[in-house]
Amino acid sequence: MSTIPDLASLHALGPAQQPTYPDRAAVDKAVAKLRTMPPLVFAGECDDLTSKIAAVARGEAFMLQGGDCAETFEGVTADNVRNKLRVLLQMAVVLTYAASVPVVKVGRLAGQYAKPRSSDLETRDGVTLPAYRGDAVNGFEFTPEARVPNPQRLVDVYHASASTLNLVRAFVTGGYADLRQVHTWNTDFVRSSPVGQQYEQLAGEIERALTFMKAIGADPDEFHRVDFHSSHEALVLEYEHAMTRIDSRTDLPYDVSGHFVWIGERTRQLSGAHVELLSHIRNPIGVKLGPTTTPDDAIALAQRLNPDNTAGRLTFITRFGAGKIRDGLPHLIEKVTASGLEVAWICDPMHGNTFEASSGYKTRRFDDVIEEVQGFFDVHRALGTWPGGVHVELTGDDVTECVGGGEELTDMDLSSRYESVCDPRLNRVQSLELSFLVAEMLRQA
Q: Does residue 207 sit within a domain?
């Protein structure tokens, strides 16, 4: 397990969803530069997350994974990073307090810059250009210059991720994540919403509990900081390979671009390059499983990616769609469980529920998102297994990208603040509403 396959052998496997770079020398230069850069995360932090996800697999904790569909370089600002962190902290505190389970907090950030696409090309008004594959690859602007894949952007991803992680670490250790801040996380547009008022009530209860704890002389360190981990889809092989290093403590390889990396639905081919690379690293990893996944597929992936059956090493992130989860998920869980595999199960209720609104915007119905999570919980309850977490695309801002929810956003509202460069995200009010509904499901689980 201590070897890392070379890049040429990975490319010989014909990897899916890779950029077509026009200048190979420029790619080699960018990769060589990345190989000299310090790690973004440390192997010991990855091991810590593995042990936390092992608790999720055992049914002793719940995983909250969320953040942007696709991060942008422009979005690396203190306000933007704080807003995403704030909504995740709010959601986590609702889940922890209302459901009485530890919540493992994983941001879909500091690396989520590349996106798989259903087509290599995009046509607008008779003009055809390469599809936008995320800021890691090319520019969003629909011009021939912007859409050429540029390997220098991989170095830019490193710097943007370093800045984001630096901000996150400062926030979570510098007092912002202190539980006594629960009221201050509920400022601005959220406070006036019904779900914001529900949160205020809960924050009041937490505050009273903390005051009681302090009065009896208990003030543990856990009240003042949180453990927060980064994650992204391991998509562009040049970047992930350059960031895979041998840990000096253990002589084992880790992908030090993020604590948790996952393989997407489009790149989970058993004999493919992504499965090959991630089978060698020691990070906790995830695999997205859609409605075409058979139980045999899932078992084969587990055996390939986690041959030692280490708890916390492998997470299956299911993305079926609200209408398919109750039919498709039970067979998968039953066979994987019967085969004795150590797996954490997480629900991605976003990717199976995307459609085009009458206004032309790509969107998701809040009710479909909730229905898929409810189906996920119902299936696990019926089988006696543990619904381990949720994986959601969200933002800390007041965007209008998903319809429905307590704010009752409609198709016509989408144009007012649609800011995503890729898929529609839940806004902060919808994210908080989701956390209360999931907390209720967790109580019953």
A: no
